[in-house]
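Continuing from the previous page of notes. For each protein in this section, the sequence appears first, followed by its structure tokens. Read the first protein now.
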Amino acid sequence: MSDTAEFAIFETGIGPCAIVWSGRGIAGTFLPEADAAATRGRVLRRFPGAREAAPPLEIQSAIGAITALLAGEARDLCDITITIDPAAPAFHARVWAEARKVPPGETRTYGEIAKALGAPQRAREVGQAMGANRFPIIVPCHRVLGADGKAGGFSAPGGIDTKLRMLTIERARTSAAPQLFEHLPFTTGPRRA
């Protein structure tokens, strides 16, 4: 991999996402805009001068894992290495590392993340770190909710709708309220009369 930023647009179950890398590793990921051209435009606004390229093997592997997750497979993306900008606040990096521990299909609140970091009074700052996340999906900010399981904010294209769509794909619960038909046994066969 070269030190010049390169990127690839790839199709997922929620639309055309993007990944950016350089010789230092993965520099960012992008949730979809309205179409591939709009996603490409967003990449180039954040990484001016980046060039579209065929992804090397390590990046292809990351793309495959992201695509599988967004197709409904319970994939853990913790083994994908990201390169955090050294200018990022240290607390943000800690928040992102903690958020990566939340498995597919599960959620945590901003307060729970703050508590896990030994800083229960910093839930608002956890929310700020999620908003500054440059690695959506790999750092699963969509799995971090507001108090009482409320969706909270989501700075990605599509906002809360995108967040809820991703949680639905992962079959995650967003509240403690019982879900419709949850008390019935799961069956895969034809309905019996």
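Done with the first. The second protein uses the same format. Note its length before scrolling.
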Amino acid sequence: MNKKISIIIPFYFPEKNIYKSKKIFALLSFHKCLSAILKSKYKNFEVIAVSDGSNKKSIEIVRKFPYRLIKIKKNSGAGYARNIGSKVSKGKILVFLDSDVKIKTNTLSTINNFFNKNKNHDILQGIYSNKINYKSYTNQYLQSYYYYYLFGEGKKKITTTLVTNLIAIKNTIFRSLKGFDTKFSGASSEDQELGFRLIMKGYTIYIEPKLNVTHLVNFGIIDFIKKIIKIQTDEMKMHLRNKKTLIIKSTNANYFSIIIGLILITLMICAIFANLFFTIIYFSKIILILNLIFIVIYLKFYKFIFFSQGFLATIRTIFYTYLHRFIVVVAAIFGLFDFYICRNKY
């Protein structure tokens, strides 16, 4: 049975952008995203592109395709835009796709076959491709991180973390949960929050390794820092609003090393800060031991990088692992401060 599939793509490209080259790359990625869908072998689909207060050039790109365009005047967040698109959808299956990913020609067929064969399954998660096709070391690290920790090297069957690079969900289920939480600003942790609500309602998020998409991104280390701080700050506040979400996430495979890594980085920061005011006995040895433990707990990840990308990539990954964990700790502190001191729940 060829089910009707509604593909919903929120997009936001601001009018002003400091770097012209960055804007051009982002718009080209958006065009590739839309073009890839049109090449699909599976034809029983509709595309609903939702402009979340986006610029004129991005809207002109959508108008080149036979897709439905919805324009929201004010930038209201990815979750809000997705909900607006879902309200006019006609498909039994909703596919939420980010505007910077490229699907394969058989992606929609794979989704249709999955739901036909698994009548009782309601949510399907796609994965990022781990191919070495990113010019930026920062991009390559982040995709490898997602591939290894979120998607278990493409071997996991289920996940506790929902990511809107590509997700497919039955329309009735999505509507019953009233969609994404629209209180999140921009594109943040609204996808994770929906995933946690689904799990708490008794649903299972299945992973399909065949649904691997290419992430068409090109950002440097500064953008990486900004991105992680934004997401992790909002995620911390989400966990504070509902403690159950943290428990659910901690059960995800491979997350034990991440949690331990965060604790170790926190201990190192505290030790270095305390040593500025008074001398800590065996300070150097303590820092050395903490670093050795840090490296050891990530050895499996480094081994994965070494055999898939080589020695130099492994060295770079060690640096980014430290940076990533440090940013998450800083963002968590921001989240705690914003939540309890500034009283900003979102």
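What the second structure shows: The radius of gyration is 21 Å. The chain has 13 helices and nine strands. We return to this in next week's lecture.
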